[in-house]
């Protein structure tokens, strides 16, 4: 019998619930917050976050110890997480739960690709968009 649950693979829209704590599964440092992205669109391949969740299904949970300096590399293009995550503890535990995995609409894929490849700070006059 085939399952209706979709696993994470390229061009799927993924919704995660992310929190942070002093211990695995803790939320003392950051209450759960949703993060949504299209899987596998990075300019340089999969991010470490994407490698951790590739092939997983909704309901999968994980906790990983992270140093603040590693956050930009861990999330990559997925989310401007350093802007949102102002945690004084270093290292801390980042806790993830896969909420949903859906087929992405082609327009969502194109929009996400445009955002990932947009200019930023190049002073070309595009205002961050091409």
SSE arrangement, N to C: EEHEHHEH
Strand order of the largest sheet: 2-1-4-3
Rg from Cα: 16 Å
Which structural category fits the helices and strands? alpha+beta
Helix content: 10-25%
Sheet-strand content, in percent, reads: 25-35%
Question: How would you state the average pLDDT, rounded?
Answer: 83
Largest sheet entry:
4 strands, antiparallel
Low-confidence stretches: none
* Beta-strand segment tally: 4
- The geometry reads as globular
Distance between the termini: 47 Å
Number of helices: 4
How would you summarize what this structure contains?
Helix content is 21%, strand content 28%.
Notes on the structure:
It is a single chain. The protein is α+β, with helices and mostly antiparallel strands and 130 residues long. The chain has four helices and four strands. The chain has a four-stranded antiparallel sheet. The longest helix is centred in the last third of the chain and has 12 residues, at 106-117. The protein is globular.
